[in-house]
Amino acid sequence: MNQKIFFTSDHHFGHTNIIKFSERPFATVEEMDSELIKRWNEKVSQRDIVYHLGDISLARPEQTKEILDQLNGSIFLVQGNHDKSALSYKKRFEWIKDYYELSIEDADAPNGRQKIILFHYAMKVWRSSFRGTWHLYGHSHGHLFDDETSRSFDVGVDCHNYAPLSYDEVKAIIMKKDWKAPFGDREL
């Protein structure tokens, strides 16, 4: 079977107040953590890749390690503003960065490669946004207006049934948007 690529953000493992702040449907933080782990592992296999766009855990470092060890896949962390605990277990991540420009082989994309900007925070513009480069972000827990003319959106768990999104799911969402190249078909 092929390796799949997933994107997600803002699990906030161990964060009791996020249940109230984001109106999550869980009675306790233990229930939330358990369900988030379950939904992650239902989609992601051990051989898959996950780009996590920050705020993975606010639990104590020991508890964060236990949670991270239960998650399937190779995890690449684009850190958010609540990742101090996750940073105490750096070896669980393939790398940790503040920002990343990803290129994925895709026959439907220009030149056969889809470029994606990964950042914890939403941006109005990003490198090559006018050429159709995508931007995935987290942080906002679904509280930002989704611009239907922008090839960007929030991949946080609060927006997507508390589970990571596959590349194909991201592509389907992006391609439904009413984006148009600002310079038409002219080469820049």
UniProtKB/TrEMBL annotation:
InterPro entries hit by this protein: Calcineurin-like_PHP_lpxH, Metallo-depent_PP-like
Protein name: Calcineurin-like phosphoesterase domain-containing protein
Organism encoding this protein: Flavobacterium panici
Superkingdom of the organism of origin: Bacteria
Pfam families: Metallophos_2
Family indicated by similarity: Belongs to the metallophosphoesterase superfamily. YfcE family.
Domain Calcineurin-like phosphoesterase: 5-146
